[in-house]
Amino acid sequence: MKLFLDSAHLQEIKKAVSWVIIDGVTTNPSLIKKAVLAMRESGERIDMDGYIKKILAEVGRMRPVSLEVAGLTADEMVEQGKILYDKFDQVTGNVAIKIPVCTVNTSGEGDPFDGIMAINRLSDEKIPVNATLIFTPEQALLAAKAGADYVSPFAGRVDDRIRQKTGMKFEKTDYFPATGIFDESSTDSLITDHELNSGVDLVARIVEIFSIYEVECEVIAASIRNATQARDCAEAGADIATVPFSVLESMVMHPGTRDGIDAFTNDLENDYTALFSGEV
Length: 280
Ligand code: E4P
Description:
This protein has 280 residues and is of the alpha/beta class. 49% of the residues lie in helices and 13% in strands. It has one domain (2-252): TIM Barrel.
C-alpha cells in the first residue's frame, strides 16, 4: 500500500518526505485553511501561489499532490481544475485535481451529477482526477466510470456518522472496529451507514468491486484517524492510505520497541561499542 500525507502544512510535508516513505500528498480546503492560520499566527505573509509551488517542489516528481477545486457546478469545477493544473503542474508534474463526487449541499442546492461530469471532462483532457468525499461504493463506481484516476473514500467520517447515530461520545482519533459496532439492544444488529459497517468496510467493498470489474482507478483510503485504521485499510486492499502527520508518526511507534531500545542501550558492552568508535 502506498502512503500519502494528508496535509497542507509545508513543514510537516518536508519532514514526512525526508522520512522516505511518502508516495504523495493530499490537501483539501480545510487543510489549506489550517496551514494558512498556522502561518498567520507565526507572523508569516501568505502568498498562496508561492506556497503551493513550494509544497509541490518539496514532494517532487512522481509523487502526486491533490489540489481541490472550490466551485460547485461542473463548469466552475472544470475551469478551476484547469487553472490549478495549468498553474501548478508545470512545477514538478505531480498535480492531481480533487473533485467532489457530488456537490449537492445540505439545502438540496446543486445538480447531483455536476461532480461526475466535471471528473469526466477533466479526465478527457488527460488531467489526473481524485474523486473526493466518497461515502458509498456506488459513488466510487460512478466516479471511476467517469474517468477518475483515484477515488477517496472518507473512512473516518463514515465511522463518525455511525457513532453519531448511537449518540456515543468519542474522540476524533478513537479507533472504530472495522467489523462495526452492535446496537446496544441487540447483538445481531450492527449500526450501519448506508448499509456499511464501518469506514474500512467502505474501503474494502470499493476494492472488491474494482477488482471484480478490473477498474483501473486507485483507492485512496482517506479520513484516517489512527494507525490501527491505516492497518485495517492495508488489510482491506486499499492502493493508498492518506494519513495525517500525527497518524504517520504513531505508525512507527510502539512501547515494546521503545522498551527494547532502553534494554539494548543499557546492555551495551564496552568492547562492542568500541567497534563503532574506531578504538581497537
Ligand atoms: C482526504 O483527501 C481528505 O483530505 C481527508 O482525509 C479528510 O479527513 P478528515 O475527515 O479527518 O477531515
